[in-house]
Amino acid sequence: MLGPVIWSLLNTAATVVIPFLLFIIFARTGEAYQVGAVGIAVSILEILKTFCPQGLYEVLLRPETTREEECASLGLLLLSGLIATAVYMGVIVLVGRYMPDLQAIGPILLLLAPKLLFDVTSVQPQAALARQLTFRRLAMRTVIANFVAAGVGSVLAFAGHALEGLILYYLLQSMLNFFLVARGQMGRVRPTLGTAPLKALFREAGYSSAVRIVAAANNYADTLVVSGFVSAALVGTYNLAKRIETVLMSTSSSFSVIMYQPLFASRGAAPRSEIVTTAMRLTTVLFGLPIIIFVSFPEEWVGWVFGDRWLSAAPVCALLALSGLARIYGGIYGSLLSVSGRNHVLLIYALCSMIVGLGSVVLLSRYGLVWVALAIALKSWVFYLVSAYLTRRETGPVIATCFWNVLSPLLLFSLIAAGATRAVALSAPTGLHGIPASVLMIALSSVLAMASVLVIYRRDLSKISNLVRVKIAEKRSPAKPT
Questions:
Q1: Over the stretch 162-202, which tens digit does the pLDDT of each residue have?
Q2: E-assigned strand segments in 33-166
Q3: How far is CA 338 from the centre of its chain?
Q4: Which of 116, 279, 413, 471 is the most exposed place for a label (fewest CB within 10 A)?
Q5: How far apart, in whole angstroms, are the C-alpha atoms of residue 289 and residue 462?
Q6: How far apart are CA 113 and CA 199, in angstroms?
Q7: What is the distance between the alpha carbons of residues 246 and 258, in angstroms, rounded to a whole number?
């Protein structure tokens, strides 16, 4: 599992870190209303994207997928992508009539429209690569597309055109990603509009597509709902915090597409349980620890990263970061449900999550964004436990698995951060040798938390170290003559 983990991390770095860095530049240089307007446009785009039959991805992962099914799937995806692109342009124009802030930059937001076509059409070739477990190629096309697009976008941003740079990044990234992932099959798979090859796939693909529609509403509709209750500037504040949750949701999606879904689709029940346990522990180390450090010192991080003008968003950022962490854990179980013929169960789960989430936003928006974020965070953790319960027959006892692999280490990291904060406050309340006390608190918390990781996960780290040594030895050893 080491290879898939490495390539999934690389894919995550390209799809999550680079857009987030560009967003930081935009947040520091753009106007608050622009941040809110782009957030609304992206939410509309993502919601429209899910009305396309992207659920074909899960069923195309089957080893028995035929060429006729691939051609018909590509044709259906292409047609739906064209329709969604036209609808997006109409929605932006229509919404702009009622939202002056969005109308002010409406023309440049229309440039995002082709992103829909490229994203939707890339579903089929991406599924073809994932079915072959070609983790390296899947990751490398993402890295190349994001680096090239980020380079172009950054040039515009540093030239004083941050908004244009961000929009162009989104567009180039999707376009390059499509051509890189599809170039290996352009002569083999051509789009057709015949539905006969897809009849056997429609039921499960329909459920899977419905799950994506509901999940998009669950992920992005809260931004649209909030915009109906607060000013555009506060929408920008919420969108800033939402960006952190979105980064973590994108991380979950990246791991699901690149690693979890292909592995679950090709493994039996017993190996699936081992994959889930390993994934939980991996998530705690890679994401749980840094998120706890962030949540323990939200004002410091928000001030450093986004600027002091966003300090009021710190509590909302912390709560939505916790929500995003829960979504990563829940995504592991969601991946298992999606490729094991239980998309109907996943659909009910997603519907309930959406209703609770959007209902909380409607009821609590009048009381402030902090209450909205708190409700969303609590909802995410409750539904993470629900997803674990739904797969209990394959993954083992829910309480024991969640306690030892999630709750226990996260609580330990939190206590370490609290202890480090108290220690610095008592010994060096004004700082030490010119280093601010807040920096000392974060540094001490991070070092002690990493030390605890080395102790708690020493066996896992030892196995990884031995595996790496074996791989290096295999590469260095001369090939045996045939």
A1: 788 888 888 998 999 888 888 766 657 777 777 777 776 77
A2: none
A3: 17
A4: 471
A5: 20
A6: 30
A7: 18
